Amino acid sequence: MPYPSQVSREAVVAQAWQLIEADGAENLSLARLANSLGIKAPSLYRHVGNKSSLLQAVNLFTSQRLIASLRQRAAQVNGPPQEQLVALLHAYRSFAHQHPNTYLLAFTNTDDALRPDEDLLEQMVLPIQALITAVSGQENSLAALRGAMALVHGFVMLELHGQLRRGGDLAADFALAVHAYLQGWQSVQ
């Protein structure tokens, strides 16, 4: 059993993230988390004050991983901003599908105590807004960013909850919706 001081806050959050992804947030307990880390439950309080603090840290971790995934994908595309945005929105959808439980926890909760710091989240999204500015223009960039996020999040939520049941190729439908959305912003400029 590792000595509790050898377990970092980052390790606690990462392990909680893994457990939530595997079994859902409703099945996470501090006792189970401590057991999976090989420490006693009271030792967790050195790293997280309570379960709400832990879930807030997990939500921040999820947000950071999503943004890192988006940045990595954008760096792989050398084309014009619209092509980079298409790649970003597809990467966003892929992330949500690969990590549905932590995605849902981070982006559907209504408890303010579970939300990561808004200023930090804003700083994380600014590089994406810079890309969308090239497509929509500076004046429209915030509206275009919000619309793009609503498009991808809404589509993902419908998919994750099994609401798109009329058949067809959902990946192709998503690609078409993204393309049409970005083309629309070009015509507004």
Describe this structure in words.
The longest helix has 26 residues, at 51-76. This protein has 189 residues and is mainly α. It has helices spanning 9-23, 30-37, 51-76, 81-98, 100-108, 118-136, 141-160, 170-188. It contains 8 helices and no strands. The chain is elongated. The mean pLDDT is 89.
Record keyword descriptors for this entry:
elongated; 189 residues; mainly alpha
Q: How helical, in percent, are the residues? A: over 70%
Number of helices: 8
Largest sheet: none
What is the chain-wise order of helices and strands? HHHHHHHH
Structural class: mainly alpha
Low-confidence stretches: none
Specify the overall morphology: elongated
Chart the SSEs and their pairings:
Elements: H1 9-23, H2 30-37, H3 51-76, H4 81-98, H5 100-108, H6 118-136, H7 141-160, H8 170-188
Helix pairs in contact: 1-2, 1-3, 3-4, 3-5, 3-6, 4-5, 4-6, 4-7, 4-8, 6-7, 7-8
Task: Give a nutshell description of this structure.
With 189 residues, this protein is an all-alpha fold. The chain is 71% helix and 0% strand.
